[in-house]
Hints:
Blueprint: E1 4-10, H1 19-35, E2 42-49, H2 51-62, E3 70-74, E4 82-84, E5 87-96, H3 97-103, H4 112-127, H5 136-157
Parallel strand pairs: 1-2, 2-5
Antiparallel strand pairs: 3-5, 4-5
Amino acid sequence: MKNIDIFLKNKQKKIKINYKLKEIIFYAVRLVLYLEKFKNSAEVSILLTDDESIKNLNSKYRKKNIATDVLSFPTFKDGRYFKYDEKIVLGDIAISFEKANEQFKKYFSSCVEEEIARLVIHAMLHLLGYDHENGEKEEKIMKKKEKILNNIIKQKFKFERVNHYES
Length: 167
């Protein structure tokens, strides 16, 4: 794997993004690319936001007027990625910190950081062309890959169960 640029922007106000959360996010991106044998230089943009902002994005781009946990915007089209400055632009990811904090117990994550890692993995697989909405076979493949990746993340960061972040 060559040079991977990860642009992280925090537009939510619930928590300040600390070094550990950045490390988890960056590791999750690189882990997916490594295990998927992605060989090129690339860039990914990740936005941590709130429910209202992600609802607006979901409404604008998917015509669904609800807040969701994660959105992926791959540049992959007609079998090709957008390239910029000799790098493959994989796309953009938007994550609602509020949703992640609300649902981490639902998906058996021990803490919000683990849930955010799970969402980054899910979104990265979308950026690489996987789509669980394309049928049962694709959904099974994606779930299997997510399980493997999530287990690696859990082993590396040894998450401990914590309470929700409160405002």
